[in-house]
Design brief:
Mean pLDDT: 90
CATH architecture of the largest domain: 2-Layer Sandwich
Low-confidence stretches: none
Order of helices and strands: EHEEHHEEHEE
Number of helices: 4
Structural class: alpha+beta
Number of strands: 7
Distance between the termini: 21 Å
Radius of gyration: 16 Å
CATH class of the largest domain: Alpha Beta
Shape: globular
Length: about 140
């Protein structure tokens, strides 16, 4: 069976404030923000990503969201975040070390998983993080 992403992308969120979105997602999921899931808002592109710490059926959650009256009123869309093994982290602090990045991205609290490689680019304050599998994808 294929792995399912623990993260859901919400697009067209401009009509729903971040606090309203968090409350809406709590209402739909029956879970608690920060304890059971996190929400990262990316206002520049009108997107938010909910990452579930607690194991849930995210496919079913997406279906519930798309049928929910308020989600439709806000004209938001929801979809599973694609699984990936490699991500780029940007705007990292100066003098950050690969060990810190590894430990951070291996944290389940941050939606991570076992890291196989970290390539640090200090001149760009960025890094490429490669995970051992698809579990770390935030």
């Amino acid at each position: 069976s294929a792995e399912t992403s623990p993260s859901v992308v919400f697009e067209n969120i401009q009509k729903c404030s971040p606090s309203c979105l968090r409350l809406l997602l709590e209402n739909i999921s029956g879970l608690t923000v920060d304890d059971d899931f996190t929400v990262e808002v990316i206002p520049e592109i009108n997107v938010a990503v909910a990452t579930f710490i607690k194991s849930i059926d995210t496919k079913e959650f997406v279906k519930k969201c798309l049928q929910h009256k308020r989600v439709r009123e806000f004209k938001m869309t929801a979809r599973l975040l694609e699984l990936t093994q490699t991500i780029r982290a940007e705007s990292l602090p100066d003098n950050i070390c690969t060990d810190y990045i590894t430990v951070y991205f291996e944290s389940a609290r941050n939606g991570g998983g076992p890291v196989s490689d970290v390539q640090l680019f200090p001149e760009e304050n960025s890094a490429i993080i490669t995970f051992c599998n698809h579990e770390g994808n935030t």
